[in-house]
Structure formats: structure tokens, C-alpha cells
Amino acid sequence: MKENKFQIDNNRIKRRIVLNNRVRDLFSVVIVLVMAILIVLLYGIGKDSIGWLDLQFLTSNLSIFPEKAGIRGAIMGTVYMMLVVIPITLILGVATAIYLEEYANDGKIQRFIKVNISNLASVPSVIFGLLGLTVFARMLNLGSSILAGGLTMSLLVLPIVVVASQEALKAVPGFLREASFGMGADKWTTIWRVILPVALPGILTGAILAMSRAIGETAPLVALGIPTLLMKIPTSVMDDFTVLPIQVYYWTLDSVLTREYTFLAAATIVVLLVTLFVLNSIAIVIRNKFQKTF
Amino acid sequence: MKDNNLEIVYDVKGLNLWYGDNQALKDINMKIEKNKITAIIGPSGCGKSTFIKTLNRMIENVDGVKTSGEILFHGDDIFTNKLKVEELRTRVGMVFQKPNPFPKSIYENVVYGPKIHGIKDKKLLMQITEESLKGAALWDEVKDRLNENAYSLSGGQQQRLCIARSMAVNPEVILMDEPTSALDPVATMKIEELMEDLRKDYTVVIVTHNMQQAARISDKTAFFLSGELIEFDNTDKIFGTPRDQRTEDYITGRFG
């Protein structure tokens, strides 16, 4: 016989079950509230865009007549900017992550760099805009060109790509490295043939999320001073440009004077949201499809 | 009379190893002979895994490891730059405790080694694959599904695939670090049967916590205790008439 006086209190078990149910109900209410707010927002925007969002809207240039105005310029601007952002962030971001995770010794300097890359990811985006204005627009004389905007945006999302790639590399099981080193492979061979293929889905997921951030970000480009009204479609990286969120921003600002601009802004928001939604879905599909269990 | 034809592959001289301030190997002296199976036994924490991982310098991947003394591999000290670590690990293959195939096809696993050494000839790669898988007694089970992912194999098959993978670069030595500890008895038996054939072409050093296994398969047995090499002799001698009391206590199951 045990001597301690421990006894199971059945009422306590019942109370715990009740508490569990209440907590579940509370959380359900919270999620419904959040979804309701989102739905109201989407409904409002969707309703405003009806009749305005059509093929003509996507393929026309800006116009002083709201009925004829379109966002072709903004779409092309976004595409051009991403053509600068994607290669720069992927190459620099993945290379930085590989260096930090695979090559760098775990010294004080390396730890300082790692911590500060994470810190950079949370710096307000307008700060990056000011940095871009000083360095790219003024010092390098790039003005408010696509190149200046793309470089600024790359700086903004680079920390996200680096951190995501680091996590993906860290998640590669150590026994795979061991297996490769045990075969007489050097570090780079191991990284190229074993580690990167396994880490790639994680890296891609992070990269896509970073790209959708770059597409939706406004503040750094406002700081850079990209033009309000752009009638000309950009043709090279040195041209001035505008992007979708900036277009939304200026139409919304002017909607006090021209009522129709509200609908144009709403239609642009729908285009932007659909693009981001598709990108994020791709990221989720990649993550689920390639998630390997060892 | 000593057999003069015996060729020494590894000559370990005065090897000490520390993890930080903790000494894990103390003054190990040991000669490992060619085409023999050398088993290393001892209780948990005795340094047997540390020792085998020192033989191909894998231990250096652990932070804070320091060594002193020398390990001569065919007369060259493996700790000097005369023998590059990549070269050493190509001539000395390793099979790990837990099967660790790459998440690639069975074929890609076997040709990993040959490919990093620049072999591109498809016919040659296929020949290497067949010979290595036959050498690891896996060919008949996988010949029709070489393009399937290695993780579709059972644990025992995965371990034999890892043995085939290490054989694919024609190493002289295969180090095995408790290769059957994660396997069921049937898979273990298959690997033990395979060991018998390995002796012909390779020098094998195997760490095992299973004394019966050591007695069944090895020619020579080394008994480690608390980082020291207590006794090293022919296997029948170690299990029949050990010289040291501690060896006898361990093999008769009095501790460990």
C-alpha cells in the first residue's frame, strides 16, 4: 500500500472538461470575428470594383477620363521591378544564408551578424525607402528609376529571404551531411548535391512570401518619390515607373475630388489581392508537396 | 611465429582525444590488419564510437574536439596534411548507426560517390551500381526499382544500401558504427551474413554493443573501457581466455 493520500477528484475532471469547451467556444468566436472583418472589407472593395474591373482596365494606360483609365503601366512597373528584385534577393539571400549556416564559424562576429539580419527584417519599410533615396537615387544617381526602386525593394526583402533560407538549411538533417562527408565529399559538393535539394522547398516558400511582400509594399517607393501620374509605359530599367500599390495610394488620395477614382482604386486592390493570394497559395502548395519526413 | 604477410592498414600510436576538458580516449595503441574484421566492444560511453569516428576524422565535426598522438594509415599520419581528409574518407568508407540514405533514388544513392569523383559514363555507373548492390546483397531485391526513392525501402534494406553506397568508390576499409543497432533481428542477420563476404575485399572495423555479434563475425576484438583499450586480441582468445579480469567480467555479463 502506498502511504500518500493522493485521491482522484472526479469533479475536478468534469470542471476541466467544461473549461476546455468554454475555451474552444471563445476561440471560435474570435476566429469568426476576424473572418467577418476581412469579409466586410473584401465585400466593400469587391462591390466598388464591379463594372470597373475588366480587360480594358487591365490593358489600358492612365487617362484623365476615369472610364478609360487602366493599370497597364502599374502592372508593367510591378513586373519590371520584380525582374530586378527576384534575381538580386535570391542570389544574395541564398548565398548569405549558405555562408552563415554552412561555412561561418560560430564566433562572436557571426552571431552578431545573424542577430542583426533578423533585426533588419523588422526595420520599418520607410527606413529602407530613405536609405534607397540616399544611396541609390542620390549617390548613385539612379533617380526614381525602376533600378533604384528594385534595389531598394531588394534590400527590404533580403533579410526575409536570408532568414527563411537559414531556417530551411538548418532543417536539413545532420545525418545527410554526415553521409556525404563520410563518402569523402567536400563541403561545397555536399551543399550542392545534398543540402540544397533538400532545403529548396523551404527556401522557395520563404522567397515567394518575400516576393509577395515586395509586390504589396508601398512606403519605400513613396520615400523614393516615384511619380504620381505616369502616362508613359516603362521600357528599360532606367525609366520612371509606378507599381500597383502606389496606384491605389494616389487614386485613393484623389478620390475626394474625383468620385470615380474610388472604384478604380478598388479594382486595382482586387488585382493586387488576387496576385498575392495566388503567390501565397503557390508557397503553401510547394511547402506541402515537398515536405519530406525522414 | 608472427605471420609476415600481415599487412597493417592502421597503426594507432598513443592516441588521446578530448571533448573540451573531458578525455574520451586515453593512450590508444592498436594495429588494424588488412582483410580482417576487427570488432570493438565495450559498455556505453567507453569511447568505442569516438574511436572509430577518429579513424576517418569524422569526429572533427564535433565542436571542441582535440587529439594528440598519431594514426598511421599505410604509414601516413592522417592528422597531417599529407593525406587530405577527403582522400582519406574516399579510401575509408563509413556505415552509420542509423541508416542514412539520401532522399534520392536507389540508383542515385549508389552513384553518389562515383559521381562526385567525376565519373559520367552511364554504362560504367550502371556497372558500379550492380556490383555494389550485389556486394551488399541487395541487388535481387531492388534491381527492378532502382529509380524508386531510397526511403521506400525497409530499414534493413536502407542500411544495406548505405553499405553499397560506401562500396561504390572501392574503399579499402569500411568502418561500421553499430550498423545493426537500429534493425530487427532478421535484418541484422542479413547484414551479419554479408560481413562474411566483405572480409575478402575489405578491411572492416565494426563497433558493436552486441557481444554475440562480435564473437560471431570478427577475427579480432578490442575491448574498450572508460576510454582505454583494455585488451585487443584474436576474437576466440578474447571470448575464450581473456587475460584481463575486466574483459572477463564484461563478456560474462557482470557489467555493461
Query: What's the structural domain tally of chain B?
Result: 1
Shape of chain B: globular
**CATH level-two architecture of the largest domain in chain A:** Orthogonal Bundle
Adjacency order of strands in the biggest sheet of chain B: 6-7-8-3-9-10
CATH superfamily of the largest domain in chain A: MetI-like
Largest sheet of chain A: none
Largest interface: A-B, 20 and 28 residues
The class by helix and strand makeup of chain A works out as: mainly alpha
What's the β-strand tally of chain A? 0
Q: Sheet bearing the most strands of chain B, described?
A: 6 strands, mixed
Distance between the termini of chain B: 35 Å
The first-level CATH class name of chain B: Alpha Beta
The level of helicity of chain B is: 25-40%
- Radius of gyration of chain B, in angstroms, nearest whole number: 18 Å
Helix tally of chain A equals 11
Unreliable spans of chain A: none
Q: What is the level 1 CATH name of the largest domain in chain A?
A: Mainly Alpha
Main structural class of chain B: alpha/beta
* Assembly state of the chains shown: heterodimer
Number of domains of chain A: 2
What's the quick description here?
The complex is a heterodimer of chains A (294) and B (256). With 294 residues, chain A is mainly alpha-helical. Helices cover 73% and strands 0% of the residues of chain A.
Notable features of this structure?
heterodimer, A: 294 residues, mainly alpha, MetI-like fold, globular, B: 256 residues, alpha/beta, Rossmann fold, 6-stranded mixed beta sheet, 4-stranded antiparallel beta sheet, 10 strands
